[in-house]
Design brief:
Blueprint lengths: L1 E9 L4 H17 L3 E6 L8 E8 L2 H8 L6 H13 L2 E9 L9
Antiparallel strand pairs: 1-3, 1-4, 2-3
Amino acid sequence: MITCVVHYVIDPAKIADFERFAREWMRLVNAHGGVHHGYFLPAEGASDRAEALFSFDSLAAYERYRERFGVDPEFVAADRIRNESGCVLRWDRTFMRPLLPEVDS
């Protein structure tokens, strides 16, 4: 499993646009082979930072999902929310390998 952690710098005055953008990406990740763990929005502290976490079974599965960017109309429409609203000022992503608690049997 691989988890993508996306770090955002957002415009706090455009949080409603960011939430609309985030809801679309949660839907798209879940519809195209991933598991979205949610967006984490400012509550205390910095008002311009947000995070997203989502996982795919493998880097290859993530790459298949990424092939839709700029091509699939739903992906283009989701990016348009970000681009036209200006709700995201900057973002970067890191790939991590989760260490999860063991389940007792």
